[in-house]
TrEMBL record:
Family annotation (Pfam families): NMO
Lineage, opening ranks: Bacteria, Bacillati, Actinomycetota, Actinomycetes, Mycobacteriales
The name this protein goes by in its record: NAD(P)H-dependent flavin oxidoreductase
Coiled-coil ranges (or none): none
GO molecular function, one term: oxidoreductase activity
InterPro entries (UniProt xref): Aldolase_TIM (IPR013785), NMO (IPR004136)
EC nos: 1.13.12.-
Classification via CDD domains: NPD_like
Gene3D superfamilies assigned: Aldolase class I
Keywords: Flavoprotein, FMN, Oxidoreductase
PANTHER family: 2-NITROPROPANE DIOXYGENASE, 2-NITROPROPANE DIOXYGENASE-LIKE PROTEIN
């Protein structure tokens, strides 16, 4: 049993989080994560309306009686979603844990805290983590450059970012980006984190609702099979290497504007990938951790394996290294 500040504050059994993923964070996956003793998040904006979110929360409760949360991601948009209405749906549904990503958590924090909701803020820099702590969030999830989705513009990998943040934070911190197994969990704890957030790894499980072809492609891919798009727009995103992402990169390199790639990167095209398995229908999000993924287990098997192997590493190999006598060099 791995007990950390995160498990104590957020009331879960294991220091493992399935963060919000567009088109992926639905009831079946979230409930499976909760039933395995980890913390899963429904992705609010995957649901077309706040009413649909209310129904998805209810559907998740039919599948688990354990804690789970809702992710609310706030990103620049041509037509912004009704964030306040989604927030109210979360409150009215009695959710007690919310993950906020993309924007300043202060905008929604007081409304959530007034209803006894614990807030985990997802960010990509020490600066933003400290600001989130200052405004009163209960924990932060900090993304290294290896992560899927938006890794920020500083290109700092987790090996540097996590201990740099841990040096200053007093609230629980979750390490995110490039983590898919027990070794990553133990490494994150050693770097000062209180747990880990995994997206790509949970996407490649049996309960994940994405198409089987997507899961099989993640298993087939290596850590080299991602592309960074939107670099020229200062909104970097890590996505799978496919015909569409390569085309987007080329357009950006040639000086193209967002209007030149707008259709290629539309969310509906990415949704088609996940739901229909057409791997070149659009851009789809995956992290460098796919190079560490070699199977498609159930969520329960994945979480149990990670915890068991992490305990073996800590009490076995690392303990042996500490206990081994130092041999003087001749």
């Amino acid at each position: 049993m791995l007990r950390t500040r995160f498990t104590e504050v957020f009331g879960v059994e294991h220091p493992i989080v399935q963060g919000g993923m567009m088109w992926v964070g639905r009831a079946e996956l979230v409930a499976a994560v909760a039933n395995a003793g980890a913390l899963g998040f429904i992705t609010a904006l995957t649901q077309p309306t706040p009413d649909d979110l209310t129904k998805e929360i209810a559907r998740t409760r039919e599948l688990t009686d354990k804690p789970f949360g809702v992710n609310l991601t706030i990103l620049p948009s041509i037509t912004p979603p009704p964030y306040e209405e989604y927030r109210q749906a979360i409150i009215d549904s009695g959710i007690k844990i919310v993950e906020i990503a993309g924007g300043n958590p202060a905008t929604h924090l007081s409304h959530l805290k007034d209803h006894g909701i614990k807030v985990l803020h997802k960010c990509t820099s020490v600066k933003h983590a400290l600001k989130a702590q200052q405004v009163g969030v209960d924990g932060v999830s900090i993304d290294g450059f290896e992560c899927a989705g938006h890794p920020g513009e500083n290109d700092i990998p987790g090996l540097i970012l996590i201990p740099a943040a841990a040096k200053h934070l007093t609230i629980p911190m979750i390490a995110s980006g490039g983590i898919a197994d027990a070794q990553g969990l133990v490494a994150a704890l050693a770097l000062g984190a209180d747990g880990v957030n995994m997206g790509t790894r949970f996407m490649c499980t049996q309960e994940s609702g994405v198409a089987q072809k997507v899961k099989e492609q993640i298993v087939a891919n290596s850590e080299l099979d991602t592309k960074l798009i939107f670099r020229t727009l200062n909104n970097t995103a890590r996505v799978a290497d496919n015909a569409i992402s390569r085309k987007v990169v080329e357009i950006e390199k040639s000086g193209g504007s967002f209007d030149d790639i707008r259709d290629l990167v539309s969310g509906q095209r990415g949704r088609k990938v996940f739901e229909e398995g057409d791997l070149d229908a659009g851009i789809w999000t995956t992290g460098q951790s796919q190079g560490l993924i070699h199977d498609i287990p159930t969520v329960a098997d994945l979480v149990t394996r990670m915890i068991d192997e992490a305990e073996d590493i800590i009490t076995g190999r690392l303990n042996e290294i500490v206990a081994a006598p130092v041999t003087a060099r001749s």
